[in-house]
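User: Here's a chain of 63 residues. Predict its fold as tokens.
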Amino acid sequence: MAKALVGYRVASDPRLMLETVELRRRVRDLEFLVERLQLENDRLREDLRQPDAVAAGVPTIAG
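Assistant: Prediction complete.
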């Protein structure tokens, strides 16, 4: 938690500034990944709700 707060203070240490920039970039990348995975999950969930048009036309042993 303390390192997360460093970004809100004026940091004179270049290493801390670089670490803050890298952490913010990583957080942004992870947020993008979460959003992409949520959209993909929603799409897959929607696909499961729709009837399978290919399987509906295939005769089974019983019928």
